[in-house]
Structures are given as structure tokens and as C-alpha cells.
Design goal:
78 residues; alpha+beta; 3-stranded antiparallel β-sheet; two-stranded antiparallel sheet; 3 helices; 5 strands
Amino acid sequence: VQARAVENQVFVVAANRVGTDGDYTFFGHSMVVDPWGEVIAEGGREEAVLTCRIDRDRVGEARSRVPALAGRRPEVYG
């Protein structure tokens, strides 16, 4: 989740189930990650509701300091 946030320079909100369902066990640890890969909220192995404040300026900061998406050529693919 952290790698996806950094490489896309966005906040990522990832939800995961907890508990069991038949033969399947779900381990939770849902999280919210900022564009720098910093976890700003994380659940545990118990059911929970996560809340946090998202500073949208972090997206612009990440994109200006690391212009990884500047070389995109959308006219080539759509």
C-alpha cells in the first residue's frame, strides 16, 4: 500500500476484512497512506472504524518535489 501511494503520488485508502469466513482468515490492518508513503491511520486485527485528516496539499508537494509523472504522454494512450 505504501509503495502504491508513493509511485502514484496520491493518498491510498486500503480496506481489509478481519475475522474468518470458512477456511479463510482475514488479518485486517486497513490503512490510510499519504503520497510520501507515511501511514497516517492503521487498523489492527479487530473490527474498527478509522478516521484521520487528509492534508490534500501533500499531493502537490509530492508531485512538485518528485515530478515522476511529468513525462506522461496521455496523447499516446488515450
